[in-house]
Amino acid sequence: MKKTKLFLSLFVLATFLFIGCNSDENQDQVQEEVSPDVAAKLQAAYFDTSSAKVTTFMGEEGVAVEDMFFTFAQIDELGEGSNIPNTEHYRTTNLVTGLPRTITVSVSPDLGTLGSNALDVAINMYNNLGSQLTFQRVAFGGKGRNKANIEVTEFYELESGGFITLGRAAGFPTRKGDPAKGFGINSRWFELSIAPTVNELAGTMAHEIGHCIGFRHTDYQTRESCGQNVNEGSAGVGAIYIPGTPTGSDPNSIMQSCGPAITFNNNDKNAMLTLY
Ligand SMILES: [Zn+2]
Fold first, then answer.
1. Which residue from 268, 235, 264, 261 is spatially nearest to 10, judged by alpha carbons?
2. What does the pLDDT look like over 111-168, one tens digit per residue?
3. From the CA of 217, how far away is ligand 1's center (Å)?
4. Which residues have a Cβ under 8 Å from the Cβ of 122 and sit 6 or more positions away?
5. Where is the signal peptide (predicted)?
6. At 227, is the pLDDT very low, low, confident or very high (cuts 50, 70, 90)?
7. What is d(CA 60, CA 55) in angstroms, rounded to the nearest whole number?
8. What is the CA(16)–ligand 1 centre distance, in A?
């Protein structure tokens, strides 16, 4: 896996993706460039808008940027970045509240047995940490009270600009203290020679769950794991240093922008237990 430079959670180098013909079948939906106004708001929050697109995701219209999706209302709440801490593990301003709490999670059958098995692994990864958040698998497609707190859905998106987005989280925790409503997994990944194993997919799911409950990228300052040098900034969602985590580089954190970790390292565990 690492030999292929599979960047879990976000991107895969397209060098490895010259597969099949360029049939470029119809996309699920037309994707448009973001308006200058919206781009400015995202840039003010230090998101990398170079591949940002207006799109529909999990039933709502908004913008896909990095491995996140924000509705326009959420973008409006992204304020100017404040002072950016010069350290490594970060959380958003809003966290899941009401501890101890059980978070239900479901996965679309569109992701198949692989998706189902991977979610079980990801749930166990979190539950084994012993935090006050317990994750529980429930059936997909429930309505009302039976609707999972975090739904895992399928989307299909081709490689672009040398990268493929593996997963995409629907924002960060809400002001009310609930997790983001879910995340998507790009089934295009499954078609490639670097198609994930159960544990690799579970690693990406654990990363996206991390966003849903308030973790920003460990390397948000530099996105060094993606071979980039940009600053994601503190955003309106905040980028608050988590005490007890390292101040140096932490390339094996599962919350790196572009992997390659697929399991929690000790700093990830400490960060989780500090918050929850
Ligand atoms: Zn991410």
1. 261
2. 999 999 999 999 999 999 999 999 999 999 999 999 999 999 999 999 988 889 999 9
3. 6
4. 202, 203, 205, 206, 209
5. 1-23
6. confident
7. 8
8. 21
Alpha carbon separation from 12 to 6, 69, 216 (Å, rounded): 5, 19, 20
Q: How many angstroms separate the alpha carbon of residue 207 from the centre of ligand 1?
A: 6
- The string of pLDDT tens digits covering residues 179-226 is 999 999 999 999 999 999 999 999 999 999 999 999 988 876 667 777
Q: Residue 53 in 3-state DSSP?
A: strand
128 Cα–ligand 1 center, Å: 21
- What are the boundaries of each domain within the chain? 2-12+30-275
- Cα(130) to ligand 1 centroid in Å equals 23
- Reading the block at residue 232, the tokens are 């994601």
**So what's the pLDDT on residue 163?**
84
Tokens of 262: 């697929």
Nearest to 152 by CA among 184, 124, 191: 184
Q: How far is the CA of 106 from the centre of ligand 1 (A)?
A: 19
What is the rounded CA–CA span in Å between residue 55 and residue 227? 26
- Triad 257, 233, 52: Cα angle to 5°: 65
Distance 40 CA to ligand 1 centre (A): 21
- Return the CATH fold of 2-12+30-275: Collagenase (Catalytic Domain) (3.40.390)
Q: How far is the CA of 270 from the centre of ligand 1 (A)?
A: 19
**In whole angstroms, how far apart are CA 169 and each of 18, 69, 183, 210?**
27, 6, 4, 9
